[in-house]
Amino acid sequence: MRKLLLVLTAFLFFAGQVFAQKTITGKVTDDKGTPLANVSVTVKGTSTGTVTKADGTYSLTVPANAKQLEFSYVGLVSQTVNITASKTVYSLSLAAAGTSDLDEVVVTGISRVKKSQFAGAANKIDAKEMANKPVGSLDQLLQGRAPGVLALTTSGQPGNNSVVIIRGQNSVVGGSTPLYVVDGIPVEASVFQGYNPNDFASIDILRDAASLSQYGSRGSAGVIVVTTKRGQSGKMQLSYTGQYGIKSRPDFAFRPMNTAEVLKAQEDYGKIVGGAQNTNTVTPGWYYSKSNPRYIALTPAQQAQADYLLDSISKIDINWSDNFFRQGNFSNHQVNLSGGTGKTRLFTSVALYNEEGTTTRTDMKRATVRNNVDYADDKLTFSLSSNFGYVKRNFQQTAVTNSTGNPFLATNIQVPYAMVYKPDGSYATGVGSKFVGANQLDLTKYDMNYNDQFKGTLGINIGYKITKDVTVGLVAGVDFRETQNTNYQSREAFLRTPAGTSSITTLAGSQIESMERNLTSNIRPSVTYRKLIAEKHDLEVTALGEYIQENYKFFNLQGYGIDPRTPNTPGVIQPGNATNQLYIVAGGNKERTGLASGLGLLRYTYNGKYTVTGSLRADGSSKLPEENRWVNFWSAGLVWDASKEDFMQNVNFVNSLRVRASYGGSGNANNFPRTYLYQATYGSGSYSGIPTQVATYPGVPDAKWETTWVTNFGLDFELLKRRLYGDLNFYDKRTKDLFLRKQLPAEAGGFTLDINAGELQNKGFEWNINGEVIRNKNLVWTLFTTGGYNKNELLDIGGQQPFEQGTSYINVGLPLGTHYTVRWGGVDAATGQPLYYTKDGVLTTTYNASNNVSDFGTWEAPWKGGFGTSLRYKGFDLNILFSWQEGAYKMDNLEYFVENPVGFLSVGYNQSSDLKFWQKPGDIVNTPSPLYGTNFSSKLIHNASFVRIRDITLGYTVPKSVTEKLKFVSNINIYVQGTNLYMWTKWRGMDPEAGPVNINLSEFPNPRAFTGGVTVTF
Amino acid sequence: MQYKKYSFYLLAVAFLAGGCKKQLDQNDPESISEANAFKTLEHVQFGVNGAFGRYGVYSTDMYANALVADEAKLGADNAGQGALTYRYQYSSDGTTGGDVTAGYFPYYSLIDQVNRVLPHIYTVSAPASDNPRRDILKGQLLALRAIGHFGALQAFCGNYNASATGVPVMTESDAAAKPARNTMGAVITQIEADLAEAKTLLPAVTVATFTDTVMNRVNVAAYQARVALYKGDYANAITYATEVINSGVKPLVTGTAFNGIWTDANSNETLFRIRYATSTAIGGMWTTTGNLIYIAPSDKLVASYIATDIRRAAYIGTTGTGNNYVNKFYASSRGGRIVDMKACRTAEMYLIRAEANAKKASPDLAAGAADLNALRAQRITGYVNETFATALDLVTAVLTERYKELCFEGFRFYDLRRNNLPVQRSSTDASPEWQTLPTSSYRFVFPIPNAEMLANPNMTQNPGY
Question: Å from B415 to nearest chain A CA?
Fold first, then answer.
């Protein structure tokens, strides 16, 4: 903080000077001569500016020393003109965009930087790409749209968030969730249901040190900056958008057996195993089989009876997936108001979103209201951004578990010859494997699991010009979320009746209510000095201070004895006593953390060709011990605009060429493995109702910051009359003092500590290349590709022991997420025994975990990206986006169940139609003889790479000649859209994206959607 | 004018800077800091309570013993639970070896908890009238530490041999500890010393004052008998078992009084128990509370009971569809499936004394037969006393009786190993591949978990894994 004070004080002694002013006027049109409203006209390098009126004209008072005027408009190429002393009228036309990103602005959330002076690596997703997508969470928009970003949507539950990883995982135990900033206010990550992506003007994705170091202690996992739409000057414009669509279950490569197949498999199994299986009725394919020794011993009448029963069973063939999934739907209605008079502009949107998921009971309803107000005069700028969202979501019962309580798994392993309904219309429930599907449908019917979320984000941004060169600013905001979760567990459901359970609390039915509240507040004062000296030296220096506080509280209560006549309310919870044993369970936790920072930023541009940037930052986090609490980060960047050099002036095929380099550090304050990392603690508990006190964590007294240092080289180019443009980036990212999990020996207490040790590297490159194949007045055809390669490698684990984390192995030389298991050696064709490889590559029939090896890749795809095309012909607009990942490997836990005669077929569960187990010598198959079990091995690890058609949108703008006749309408746009239409993958599970990133646990697959909509501007 | 503005701004920044220090000092609101952990004797008592709670780890012995021996088979609704263990495919990793390695960390957590509390017993402030309580608390902790070491020794070491590799002995809490394995002799010496000292610190109990929920002189003696039998110290096994039996606190019972043991309707025969007030950890161990039979009694066990044996019905239940399930630790008089873990019972004392009498240098077949007959008389309606011609006959009969009496209580596998017998399952219980575990198999000693091997460079793995 002291550093900051010094910097601030230094700036305050720059005295202001008063200059003479003059007024400039003019008119802006498009390339066809049509007047353009709302074009931003600014004095270059200052915040002095205005916008054009409806007739394209403008009037602006500028300082006498103003050098250049800049004209910009979303979707059009910006232009800069020199101001000459004699001239006061400047009229021009702006060309259609899509042809250049030359003067694009990069919004870093803290500052707005012209791309030509930006040393970092950042890419922008603009409103057009995000508009009207049928998703409930903004992070679902990222896949395939920005280089270097891995975005996997792990569930088809409406509104589910995505796992987003920018430039590779950069922490072993700390997590790699990026920082999200909305209109300058840091917001809670991964809870985005309360935002309406149609309100967004752009999303900037920041990936390198020059941009991340502004976020110092929070930016090391990348920053995703959302900028929302602002009011456009001019008369208030009203528009309405309506969308409707359907959502359906996607096709899976995996198919469960039908009745004929599973009965045959049961018979084959029984023939080999015999014994107790001969009399086991859960495998009717064998129990009633003529080959079963039991059958021969039966009387002719009993044999006839057995034949009859088997015949009856074989005629039932239920597709359980059809009974479980349904067709979902989606609708969205939105009204926007945008406009401004004088110095004030306003943007308001109100939207209602409604999605019904592809399984019964899953849905999401959302209402959002956004109000953005902007004010600007020649000294003061002020903007207020506010969003309020209310979201209600209904969920399936437990998913993502390896138990028959997961309805998605139950659907896959339910035998097809069991009925769904009893004759009375209720679900055919019961105890045992045959009933897992119906039991889950029954639970879905009776139970309720939903949450109500309120989210409010409010931010202000004030700037005041003290002198011509010095601006002071203040950004302050809060992000508030409250979520109430309710889970009603009805005692009418079969699994809560005496036939289904003997647990007293389960039998009573229960109501679980929880309340979660998250409040992030921040305040960020700043002072900026900016000066153009001798027309060549453009200098900008900023000092900022920042304080962020996060408060979190969670409260949870489970009460029992809910009478089904008064369902779903905590009001009827029965008080617990020694007789009924229905004690109410209550719990919760709360946390508070603080983060204080001081930051200095510097940029110097010489003659528009060379730019140097630098930053220096100090951060202190409450999560660390006092002696290690503060850390310093710095960064430096260079930009060389080669195309402005004299020698390039004759190189005609190059329109623009910029070379960038940056290096710098950032930290991970949001991703500490524990909030109170360094404190040794004891916790209170209970042993059979009497209080206990046990050590809960020994603490790591020397805990410190995990820091990430990134080197980035970049190239921005526009070639061949801007027919080919884009950017390339190469980077090397090192995370030091890595948080690693250190397992203490059992004898030392057996705790798991999070210590600082080791180093992790991510290096790779990213591309974003666009080519305009055809560009003429009526037709524009663009091809684009974006993507990245990332090599993740643990360089050092600081002398710690390698350890297993989930399915992966943490060791030097390996990427994070590396699978670690015994190598599968196939099935011995002679005996049907499973074969495994030892560490030394010798085949053995003995499974031994000491033979685990790490040769099976990682779940984090090194290659990922998107590609597509857009075609604009007159009023028509076609956009196609493919997204892909390559080189990802995932463990298929479902395969362990559905290609497992011993553990699953034999006890009456269904199997995959791919199951082929060994039956006689000479069989070349991949599943052992049922006499042998299978273990987890590399057999289950499969390629989870995919290419999917993420979006196809066909839009049509009704010609002006038509809309002009409709006096009350100025613009009509209609479109149809398909999402997740098709996927190419070798993965045999349900959805390679769904579920935990490393292992398939039968999770809600991402749906396919067809939507259509209309936007009418009045 | 301008300077006024600046100084206001400066003030604001200074104010912010001053506030930082305070804002950045945040403590975990839900945890007790180490400095505040032990202030009064009450806190020590909480620590001791925590140590008792951690003896719940004994359930891992119950579960693993059943799966790898011949008292259980995979139940009708089993979908892989314990299957790898049952098929002798376990290794030191968490996936395959989860069941057999499960005890290692919890046993040492129990020991660590004891060692964390012990130093505070005589240093915390308390009124002088509380001083006797300090001794009692120490006695209980020492007894629990001995039980913890013994649990680890039984599971992760073979039969007793003083110079063979044991497990590490831990007598103080040390987060930096990376101990090597002590010899079995050293471990047993520490166990014996802790139990002996505990006995001197704990008060004498009578039938009226005995309680089976905390350690006291009688149940400490019961553990001494168990340890002595394992060690092959038959004279002491007889002495300690006799001490328990003669104390008269928990005589053998029969009929409904016996059935009531298993539903917690009474506390007959129970010398030490781990209580579960609301948890179905024990009641749901073999058969889920959703009535799915994951682990069932073996056909071999079911067939071992003659019709007049009251244990058949007390231990084995049968569903409407004819599937057997483990009825021991199943139903509860408190409702549902909330039952306590019976960790030590009087019947075991009779069987220890009988076996020790048969095995001691000069066997006392009459005394051994008397104990065996005394137990059987309580269990079998119309039982007629049996006599034994040889010590081997008596040992065999005692082992069979232990099989029938103590099934699912965590003994069978260790009993077979202690007597150098193979596991021999019946053909209806298991496929040929996993019907037998020969005495030569390394699997008779469970593997040290991988996590420990990785964390402790001085740890050595058991042979074969």
Answer: 26
